[in-house]
Amino acid sequence: MLAGEALLIVEGQERPLEQWDFVHCPPETRHVLVGAGDGPCVILAASSRQFQKDGPWGFYGADETARRYKASSPEDTQDGEIAYARFPPSRPARYRDGLLPR
Fold it and tell me: Domains in the chain: how many in total?
């Protein structure tokens, strides 16, 4: 956690995170991060495809705890189209002053 605050939901349990907290999730650990606090949060995430030799990569899990924060896929899937169907498509935008914390 580089800046701000977040809520980690891991295997259905809530854990608050603040700046400089570190989390390691072994392969196949169900987890989601939700922004928390008064401002934006900055998260550095890294992953390995070591255990996913041929893909598909990624997994979007349905989780009741995450659903309370609108951070859950509607169903277990590896299809991002299903997981993110409730959001409008992303579109390019110019940077606006004040968008990022100082």
Answer: 1
